[in-house]
Amino acid sequence: MTVEAFAPAKINLTLHVTGQRADGYHLLDSLVGFADIGDRISASSADGLSLQVAGPMAAGVPTDGSNLLMKAAELLAAGRGAALTLEKHLPPASGIGGGSSDAAATLRALCEVWDLPLPETADVLSLGADLPVCMTPRTQRMRGIGEELHALPPLPDCAIVLVNPGVSVATPAIFRAMENRHNPAMADVLPVWQTAEALADWLRAQRNDLQGPAVALEPIIGEALATLATTPALFHAMSGSGATCYGLYADDATANAARAAVLADHPEWWVRAGRLLR
Ligand code: C5P
């Protein structure tokens, strides 16, 4: 039996850092969406656990137990075996949850292959704070350190461009560089946005509190944001702790043209156009 699973890019449309726990982890309040741009996982019944990595972003991705995806598989295996493949399209360590989304998709696929219930949030949280939200790749509000999840109505139809200027960012360093860890949360009740324009208008009054520190540490992220600002994006910002930035567009044609324009200026950057998953 072979099961395939899509591991979509996770987009922190907002990321408010509202406090810090005694163990150092930060309290967040984030509107999380997913894009139809991502990695592909397959899991087949086999003896022992193995992983093969292919695809345009495969270089340097570990195939041993140090890969988060293998840690996720081991969490569930209890002696069971599976041959896993990862087709890597997302740049690693780039603020769009690549590793977490791969691990979550692996868990979804393995639960089908091994006929198991999906693991509880508390069990996957030990793999990473972004794991729980990636287990259910649809629009959610994420609070706590990533374990408090609230499903939201689908986002409006919206095209998206992802821009990674080629630097990988160490998340702990970005959190450490923050001057203020106690920022306001989002409103208690979020609006239901009917159009991409309404979503963009609302996003303009929100924040990614990691964006400032990330741009200060890696000025090229500021260049990615400035380049997105030259396109007809309804809104643009950084996702997660960076370095990937996103722009939202009214339709696919505008997003595709924006992608081409960014690539014309910066042929060495990773730039993809797609849609927000609804
Ligand atoms: O949990 P994960 O491995 O994704 O997080 C990487 C690092 O980012 C953590 O070790 C921590 O330093 C920081 N982090 C944090 N607060 C969060 C999530 C991550 O401080 N809510």
Automatic annotation (TrEMBL):
Pathway terms, separated by semicolons: Isoprenoid biosynthesis; isopentenyl diphosphate biosynthesis via DXP pathway; isopentenyl diphosphate from 1-deoxy-D-xylulose 5-phosphate: step 3/6
UniProt-listed InterPro entries: GHMP_kinase_C_dom, GHMP_kinase_C_sf, GHMP_kinase_N_dom, IspE, Ribosomal_Su5_D2-typ_SF, Ribsml_uS5_D2-typ_fold_subgr
UniProtKB keywords: ATP-binding, Isoprene biosynthesis, Kinase, Nucleotide-binding, Transferase
EC numbers, comma separated: 2.7.1.148
Ranges where the GHMP kinase C-terminal domain occurs: 198-262
Ligand binding (ATP): P91, P92, A93, S94, G95, I96, G97, G98, G99, S100, S101
First-level EC class: transferase
Record has Kinase as a keyword: yes
Protein name: 4-diphosphocytidyl-2-C-methyl-D-erythritol kinase
Gene this chain is encoded by: ispE
Job of this protein: Catalyzes the phosphorylation of the position 2 hydroxy group of 4-diphosphocytidyl-2C-methyl-D-erythritol.
Transmembrane portions of the chain: none
Family per similarity comment: Belongs to the GHMP kinase family. IspE subfamily.
Active site: K10, D130
UniProt-recorded Gene Ontology molecular function terms: 4-(cytidine 5'-diphospho)-2-C-methyl-D-erythritol kinase activity; ATP binding
Keyword Nucleotide-binding (UniProt): yes
Annotated GHMP kinase N-terminal domain residues: 67-131
Reactions catalysed: 4-CDP-2-C-methyl-D-erythritol + ATP = 4-CDP-2-C-methyl-D-erythritol 2-phosphate + ADP + H(+)
Gene Ontology BP, a term: isopentenyl diphosphate biosynthetic process, methylerythritol 4-phosphate pathway
HAMAP family hit by this protein: IspE
Organism: Phaeobacter italicus
